[in-house]
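All the exercises in this workshop are built on plain-text protein records. A learned vocabulary of local backbone shapes supplies the integers on the structure line. Once this layout is familiar, the rest of the handout is easier to follow. An example says more than a description, so a record of this kind follows:
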Amino acid sequence: MNFLDFEKPIAELEGKIEELRHLSDSDEINIAEEINRLQVKVDKLLRATYGKLTPWQKTQVARHPDRPHASDYIERLITDFTPLAGDRAFADDKAILGGLGRFRGQSVMVIGHEKGRDTESRVRHNFGMARPEGYRKARRLMEMADHFAIPVITLVDTAGAYPGVDAEARGQAEAIARSIETCLDIRVPLISVVIGEGGSGGAIALAAGNTILMPEHSIYSVISPEGCASILWRSGDAAKEAAEALHLTAQDLHRLAVIDDIVPEPLGGAHRNPEMAIASVAEHLDRALKSLTMVEGGVLRARRRDKFLDMGKIGLP
């Protein structure tokens, strides 16, 4: 288990539990009662800690390396998954996974950012930061789903689109804009889940959906806290203040009507129990999908467009 900075007291208690279990195994000493007592303390401390996380702490949880990734959701939720590759113009971007499969018997097109888990896979997937060909692949798959009347599920988890010179040379901004345009134009249900970190245009390129879901400790923002701090405070040290100002938590965004629903996570975050976290998302996905498949395509598209246009009217007379 990788512990975050604010989890040090929890880490110490869990370390003691492991020591006692090792002692019990080796010396055949019955100390189950003491282990249970410590476990109760851990659960109580977890509940207290995770019940009052600051925006910056939620940012850390959303980026936790053990948090389930798009590939984990696809593996556990999508049967008969067939990956589809390439943008039919330049290359296949490994930061974007996509393909056809079935979610609880319903044919779906799944598209998601993949960050990778170890050093090798993170480099291969470019840390989930897509280049233009990634967004053009996403657009191609959404258009294919629209053609065959197949609902689209997107799994958002990126710090932002790749900012490299090569990406800019190949039209990064235009690729993102076209992907957003496609999200708003298709006539099939589009459900977006911000499973970890939703950063900047790189996230909204896949997240302009009919229904947007966020697990309770994920984040979604126009810019990363570090990027915001470097612009406004001229220092990355102000990332905590930036996180507060950005209103990037699921709770803030639900209150502002940017997202539609918050998905509860297991005690201590999705990284502590990925199976339970994925199952919780699945239930919300199932309800959203059943609701949206009852709506005619033109109405779906109109509602989706109106939803995003209305966001800009908040606070206006």
Residues 5-52 form one domain.
